Amino acid sequence: MKARVATWRGGDPDAIERNLDAIRSNSESGPPEGVPSVGLLIMRNDDEVVFVGLFESEEDLRQGDATLNAMDPDVPMGTRTVAFYDVPIKLEAERA
Questions:
Q1: Domains of the chain in sequence order
Q2: Which of 2, 10, 1, 24 is nearest to 84 (CA)?
């Protein structure tokens, strides 16, 4: 499994919230076309927003990265950096 981690820093908090609202409303239909992601985690604090996209293979990661790089957020979210990781362990737990 592979992960694409995009970190946004320095964006306007109201603009970020509007973009996150758009993602929430569009997420019911799954990932955007051209992004073969099997999972997404979005984390936020006062200074940054972190998107972690999970992909089954290197090929899926590269395709998703190319598609996501071609997209512009609806509103500016600050300065973006992107890093790629191997995911040697992925745990999921269900609450009883």
A1: 2-86 (3.30.70.100)
A2: 2
**CA angle in degrees (0–180, nearest 5) for 60-52-32:** 55
Residue 40 contacts residue 52 (beta carbons within 8 Å): yes
Of 8, 14, 5, the residue nearest 77 (C-alpha): 8
Q: Which pLDDT band, with edges at 50, 70 and 90, does 74 fall under?
A: low
Smallest CA-to-CA distance from 1 within 87, 63, 84 is with 87
pTM: 0.88
